[in-house]
Amino acid sequence: MTTSGLTTEQLTSFHQNGYLIIRNALHPSTVTSLLNETNSLLTNFPLADHPLTRFSTGEKTDHVGDEYFLTSGDKIRFFFEEDAFDSAGNLTKPKEKAVNKIGHGLHTQSAPFAHLIDGPALRQAGEVSPADVARSLGYKDPRCLQSMVICKQPEIGGAVPPHQDSTFLYTDPPSATGFWYALEDATLENGCLSFLPGSHRWAAVEKRLVRKEGGVGTEMVDNTGRRFLGEAGVRGDVDGEYVPGEVKAGDLVLIHGNLLHKSERNTSLKGRIIYTFHIIEAEGTEYDGRNWLQPPEGGFTKLYS
Q: Where are the bilayer-spanning segments (predicted)?
């Protein structure tokens, strides 16, 4: 573990591959605290007034085109697995076993999750500080703009097709980086992430998820802005071999916003709870007013005070 940013070797690996696994980034006690918070949120949210919004990272976007999703950036909201419903629209699992994700403002609305962007507290605890990592990556004014728990529920946890985070969190030029924490072991059996190494250097951000005209609903549109951070380098094969990233609880995965990555269905009886947040660069980039996620009053959360 490093508590002062990334080493030269880690930076080289990240720039070459587009992702980096940092082992034991969190203490077991922190992982336990985050899991306890997650279980409390899953158990205690009211179902009676919930719109039963479903979530998928695929091409279908109508299901996220509602007020509940579009206004979730500074709130804690719950989104269900597509396969958690029967043909009549009724849940087939207890609610705590049917949620796909909790998002998108955990980093401001939940003290245990806010801890993970508290640089001084993390350094004092000997845990990896995202602020220090961001400095290592060259960020001038990094902002945390969304956070979420992804549950990948036993037996019904859906596959996530190959995608780039910059499609959903676009700046011009692209600047997103994901911090992905395993709160439970993520394995081939329960749907760990897989990466197409180096694809961040040749896979352009060709599409963007934006709000439809009038601000109601979302749609995928062609990206007419810059598609890379800097110049595109070597060309690669979009059908190339993905590398699985099996991790243990407490490990951190850094993911470049342009990197192609995916995960398979969880058909096992073992869950796979993770926590992830994303940062963008606020200095020298443009954040489009059409992006599905718009900044709350006061703006996105600064990593540097």
A: none
**Can you give the CATH number for the domain in which 94 is found?**
2.60.120.620
Kindly state whether residue 244 falls inside one of the protein's structural domains. Answer: no
In tens digits, the chain (305 residues) has pLDDT values of: 445 699 999 999 999 999 999 999 999 999 999 999 999 999 999 887 787 665 555 554 444 447 888 999 999 999 988 888 888 888 888 889 889 999 999 999 999 999 999 999 999 999 999 999 999 999 999 999 999 999 988 878 788 999 999 999 999 999 999 999 999 999 999 999 999 999 999 999 999 999 998 877 899 999 999 999 876 666 777 778 999 999 999 999 999 999 999 999 888 999 899 999 999 999 999 999 999 999 999 999 999 97
Q: Which domain holds residue 226?
A: 8-236+253-300
String of DSSP letters for 244-294 = E--B-TT-EEEEETT--EEE--B-SSS---EEEEEEEE-TT-EE-TTBSS-
Considering its fold, how many domains does the chain have in total? Answer: 1
> What's the maximum distance between 2 C-alpha atoms anywhere in the chain?
55
pTM of this prediction exceeds 0.90: yes
